[in-house]
Amino acid sequence: MANSFLSLVRKDMLIEWRQKHTLFGVALYVGSTVFAIYMMAGQPEAKIWNALFWLTQLFVAVNSVAKSFLQEHPHRFRYYFTIVKPTTFLLAKMCYSIALMLIMSLVSLLLFSLLLGWPLEQGGLFVVITLVGSISLSAVFTFLSAIAARAHQNAALMAILGFPLVTPVLMILSNLALKAIAPVYQPGWWILALVLLALDLLIIILGAILFPFLWQE
Amino acid sequence: MPEKTFSTAITNFVDKALRQWWWKVICIACLAFTVVGGMLLPVPRLNILNETIRNLYYHVPMWITMMMLYTAGVVYSIIYLRTGKLKDDIYAYQLTVTGVMFSIFGMITGMEWAKYTWGQAWSNDPKQLGTALSMLVYFAYLVLRNGMKDEEKRAKISAVYNIFAFTLLIPLIWILPRMVDSLHPGNGGNPAFKSYDRDFSMTIVLYPAFIGWILLGFWIASICIRINMVRYRQENTYQFEIEKHN
After folding, report:
1. What's phi and psi for A184, nearest 5 deg?
2. How far is B23 from chain A (nearest CA, A)?
């Protein structure tokens, strides 16, 4: 299982590297979004900065993670079906999209700090929250893109399914991130962090349980 | 397999229970008592709330009924994934749709109540936000279902989404709003209704109201299920024969 998992992840990375247009397309998407925000908002105050950052993360997640299942040809799933276990396949896809999203969120954080300023008091903490946040966003959207791909639908369906589900996660994330922005100590942040971690775990376990049913024809 | 016999035992029990009439009599009796007793019996006099406290008999049971229907829908989604019978998918879908209907009723009664007690119908209360989110999630479920034509595939994918959404939503709408301040009773220094519950005349109406509305929800769902079962049998006579023989 570990073997096929690793080779699946490696295959996705290789495809991504060979078809550079998708990778750089997403990077360009991030860049132009941040630039558009900069043109409209300039250098906003910390709270608005935070909200804009998480909104950007949401749209980047939808656009980059959508590729994980929707870019594959439907007939190729039948081939995968014969050679790997469904859970392995889903976990490999999740791993790949988490890696992609981690890179993209670091890129967008860099661009934000360049263009929109750096209102953070605890930069290191904010980077950690960003990384945890991109894990949960990409895990949810990977599973939803599997649903959208099986339903023969486009990325719009994924957004419809995902936005309400992911809004509470975004609220937790932005509240956690506010702790990194404000200089004062705020009590109760570790409860939110635990809730977020538990939620990440729940998403991955649920995905692993439910994906085999989605996979069958 | 033991699981399969377990799920068929559940479905057989529910099928039998839905056909009986005694619970419908209880439902009508409870609701009649709720409407009459809810209007006439004395309630505690409280500032701001005044007589609007009688809305408690309508607003809270709506949410309880909605949660019961959603839970039943998820149970049927799980059973569908185990058995693969389209009948169970019809049950899951109709139960969930009835739940969506009750969530709309709960929202309307709540907004009406909020207008007279909090001053405006929408006041960004965490519970209102959580409810709005859960409504969006279930509307997305309806969109997902209506986008697919193939029955087997639609049943399977919507069952998977239903389980995924329900499991993610439950912690979010039951736990998170309790961690922040809310205008609802029992949060942020507001007195809970528990303290008024001691009032005998309210308790005596509230519990029949719960039973009556929950039974009404399942009654409506059972009628929707029967209509759709008839439609399904008419449209798939051949397939139904096969399922009967299995």
Report:
1. -85, 155
2. 35
